[in-house]
Write a structure and sequence with these properties.
alpha/beta; about 15% strand; seven-stranded parallel beta sheet; Rossmann fold; 7 helices; about 230 residues
Length: about 230
Amino acid sequence: MPGLLDGQRVLVVGTGPMAQATAAAAASSGATVFLSGRDRARTADAAARAGLAPESALTADPTDPRQARQLIEHAGTLDHLAVLAGGTGARASSLITTPLPDAQAAFGRFWLSYNLLQAAHQHIGDSITLLSGSSSRRPVAGLGIWGTLHASIEALARNAALELSPIRVNTISPGGIGMHTDRQLTPHRGQPTDIAAAAIALMTNPAITGAVLDVDGGERLGAYSSE
């Protein structure tokens, strides 16, 4: 994808494999890329794995509105923002049995996205991409926290697409990365590079806004399996 993002500036929020792959893809497409995470050492390592220069690694916790604003101001004027941070409350799962503190921790992803939308809208020239998950539209018993979280992020993006227009706001909904589900429709196991390709597609297609892009091999049509 060389040249697709020539001369553009991209901020990727997250340090996991999907964020790393997206940062690397944006850089190879010609963009100046920044990558941000909450932990300084982990962020520096993720930026290096994405092939970015050390100064491209920015440390901030956007669940704090003040830090979200500081992050955007540090990155400067941007063309694209991709919020691909993973969960902060891995113990959360069931709506019935999950203690409130664990559920609140899981919803840190929602507030992180919310804060960044508020902080970034005056500094973004083109698009914002958020991250949800296939459980938003295919509920799974025992995983209600995640389904509710993912659906809330998609609703946030749809409403932001209206309020922030002409900035385009979209959501990527990944399936299980590196695993098959019981009725996945494709033999391909989802990879971080699949999410990166979707993120670049949303950044570079001016006709897409308010959309949810499923990158799940048809997972939402089947039952969840961790095997």
